[in-house]
Amino acid sequence: MKKIFTILFSFFSLFSFAQGHEKLRLDYFRMPENISAEDYLPQTIIIKLKPEFASKAKSRSVDIPALTKELEGIGAISMAKRFQHVTAPTKRMNEKGEQMVDLSLIYEIVMDNSISLEKAINRLYRSDAIEYAEPFYLPQTCFTPNDTSIGHQYALGMMKVFDAWGISQGDTNIVIGIVDTGVDFGHLDLVNNIKYNYNDPINGVDDDGDGFIDNFHGWDLGENNNDPQVKPGSTHGIHVSGIAAASTNNTTGIAGVGFKCKFLPIKITNAAGALTRAYDGIIYAADQGCQVINCSWGSIAGGQFGQDVVNYAAVNKGALVVAAAGNNDSEVDFFPAAYKNTLAVAATGNNDIRWGASNFGYYVDVCAPGISIYSTVGDNNYEFLSGTSMSAPYAAGAAALVKSHFPHYSAMQVAEQLKVTADNVNAKHSNLMEGKLGFGRINLF
What we know:
By secondary structure, the protein is an alpha/beta fold. The protein is built from nine helices and 16 strands.
């Protein structure tokens, strides 16, 4: 039996996250293969300026004549910094010698439909001021409804969570950012584990000066208000929240893996339900001090913009980004899981065999149960759902427990702890799956 909380990993610094794919600037941009119009926002481009043009970067424009000319040429209607509340880092490297990310150089451009997105991006690359330009990729949630009942929360036993709780029951100062479709504030199994911001009560004033008025209980980035309550009929964010952080030992419903750890609800969907502010959610969670950030969503389309966001959270802010590997039953890279500096999570069942729809590949770090997972939904109810969306919050809750017991661990060390103590599941699969389910299924004890 592994003793996850007593093993010292002085060699953690020698490890790295599963290798992602840093996107390099291309001589000619082409739309990625196998993506459809649903995978990106129409008539919208994300660009990043080169660092040497930082002094020319205004809030809603740039003082760069050559770039302004190309913007006019593509029919740009608007241009604005993508992260208005994020400032440039004051130093180039963090304390570990890793290069900090400057998100203040990233812009969102909306254009008319006079030319195609691909042609517009290539026109922008004519300017030497551009570090990268790419479509605004839209991720999707990673779950599949499942009505079969194979036992309430079998995953807790498989992952030795009960044993781990005998050593550590979490810490209320450790916060999991649930970047998703919102939460149900009326759910009795969730309301007491939300991380409330008592420095900014609901009074119409930005008391804590963070640029978000009355963000007392999270934020709705998709509709830009202080109410991340889910829309009627939406269950994804509620279900994910319960897996990671439902109230435990409260004689109600289920038990969240994180036990005493809190969670911060961050809604990233717009009024139509599209995940238009997914990567913004990672930034918000990191800026609000979340040590673990759960992303139960993604896309086969990934660009440098997403990698910059993940790097900002991991390097600038020291947060562990946990991401679902996707439900395409494919070895294709799935983002943000395939990015560097994430913990990518595939789905297995109660027999440690890969869920049939779970993605796999060398970018996967660990597995966690994702079949028929029982968790919270709206109106104080519970349902069984399946998907890597369910596996990721198990990993996020586990990461929060490790961080609680070892508060001095870096995000990378927390991730490595989960990886090197996982149960290898290769024997349950064919040789073709060797190394493509990461280090195995999470074992917390």
